[in-house]
Amino acid sequence: MFITFEGVEGCGKTTQLRLLKERLQARGHRVTATREPGGCPIADQMRAILLDAQNSAITPLAELLLYAAARAQHVQEVIVPALERGEVVLCDRFTDATVAYQGHGRELDLATIEQLNRLATGGLEPQLTLLIDCPVETGLSRARARIEAATGAREERFELESILFHERVRQGYLGRAAAAPQRFLVIDGSGDVAATEERVLAALSGKLSVLGEAVSVPQQAER
């Protein structure tokens, strides 16, 4: 099963992906957790270019093509082999991110983006997408705190974009979720980690029957 996590900067999707991975593994499932851009050595090199704030001169089209190239490598090297091995694949961002960020955020042509996405993935689509949603200001505040606390490379090129850019991204995500309700689960990520995890598990409880008793909802009431 191929599950993706999406959302604006600082929404908490990376943490929720990790928590779900741990829960699935504890129940005996083989899980590959990966991310975009990146996920394999070649794509990670492209990630370094894309997220480095010093590369602010990258044009929107060049940015889009770099994402597509990184995805093509990632899909063939990591995602497809894991699925063929029968593993659950959890991916931190995928094609919906390109539609939201480059399509709605950068306002590039959506039809061109969809075509590139199909080319890069070979038509592979997630079976389930968790959109962790929160106000832009909340997410950016969290993201900036994370960046300041980090000791490695400062991946902050998108965090430095305007509030209006991030609002367009958020609305792009929400519009995409509304257009594909059979695939998307929209989760309120404005609370703390525990509250968001409860909401994730409650939303997943009726969606992962293919995994049997893979997830369980905590006994405490959802906040």
UniProtKB/TrEMBL annotation:
Keyword Transmembrane: no
Enzyme Commission (EC) number: 2.7.4.9
Keyword Ion transport appears in the UniProt entry: no
Top-rank taxon, per record: Bacteria
InterPro entries: P-loop_NTPase, Thymidylate_kin-like_dom, Thymidylate_kinase
Keywords associated with the record: ATP-binding, Kinase, Nucleotide biosynthesis, Nucleotide-binding, Transferase
Listed GO biological process terms: dTDP biosynthetic process; dTTP biosynthetic process; dUDP biosynthetic process
Record GO terms (molecular function): ATP binding; dTMP kinase activity
GO cellular-component term (any): cytosol
Reactions listed under catalytic activity: dTMP + ATP = dTDP + ADP
SUPFAM superfamilies attached to this UniProt entry: P-loop containing nucleoside triphosphate hydrolases (SSF52540)
Ranges where the Thymidylate kinase-like domain occurs: 5-198
Cited CDD domains: TMPK
Positions bound to ATP: G7, V8, E9, G10, C11, G12, K13, T14
Enzyme kind, highest EC tier: transferase
Entries under HAMAP family matching the protein: Thymidylate_kinase (MF_00165)
Function: Phosphorylation of dTMP to form dTDP in both de novo and salvage pathways of dTTP synthesis.
Family: Belongs to the thymidylate kinase family.
Protein name: Thymidylate kinase
